[in-house]
Each structure stands twice: as structure tokens, then as C-alpha cells.
Amino acid sequence: MSKISTLNAEHYKWGDACDGWHLLKQDDLSIIHEKMPPQSAEVRHYHVFSRQFFFILNGELLIEKDGEEIQLGVHQGIEIPAGTSHQIRNESAHPAEFLVTSQPPAHGDRVVVKKVKSISTVTL
């Protein structure tokens, strides 16, 4: 078994100049270390099958979960059940780092949700 860290893990970019490192990438489980610069945000979305757990390592994040905004600081976390819309934002002046555990992995299981003013503006 080899040690894994951000120095040797598979790296990728996402969103507004955010970074991700696959610490564990298996068919049934994913653990990713992510870093968001100040004033960045992820697109609002949900996962059909994947449930996730976000755990803050450094900084703070605002997580919108089904319309409720939850502020998370260092060593705090939250579960996002499958089918629950969510968006992560770093509204602070400092970078934020966190772990995302997904079961099963969330890649390819994301549905983008757009906020609308009224149901009459939605087209299918």
C-alpha cells in the first residue's frame, strides 16, 4: 500500500480556478481533497445516486443544501444525501481546503440545477 497525498495524487482543475486531488478513486468510493480560492463557487447541482460528505480542513465554506445556507469552519462537516441540490461557495478572503467523500463516486452523476424566479419560466 502506497502513501497518497496532493503531491502524488491525480490532480484536476474545476470551476473558478479550483483544484482537486483524487486521494481514493474506486468504483464504490471516492475521496477527493479540494481547494477553492477566495470568492469562488461551484455550480448548484445534485447527484442522482451519490451521497457525499464534505469536511473542512482549512478556511470556511458556505454550503447551500436544498435552499438552506450552512456555514462550515475548520473540522466541521456535512452530509449531502443523493438527490439533494447543493452548492459550495467560498465567500471569504482566504482559500478553503476540504475533503469530499462520495459513495458511489459522483463523477458522471451530476445534474445541474438552475434557480428560477417562477415555475412558469421553466422549460423541459
From TrEMBL:
Molecular function GO terms recorded: metal ion binding
One Pfam family here: Cupin_2
Keywords linked to the UniProt accession: Metal-binding
Superkingdom assignment: Bacteria
InterPro entries the UniProt entry points to: Cupin_2, GPI/OXD, RmlC-like_jellyroll, RmlC_Cupin_sf
Keyword Metal-binding: yes
Residue ranges occupied by any Cupin type-2 domain in the UniProt entry: 34-100
Coiled coil: none
Keyword Metal-binding: yes
Name of the protein this chain belongs to: Cupin
Species of origin: Fictibacillus phosphorivorans
Lineage: Bacteria, Bacillati, Bacillota, Bacilli, Bacillales
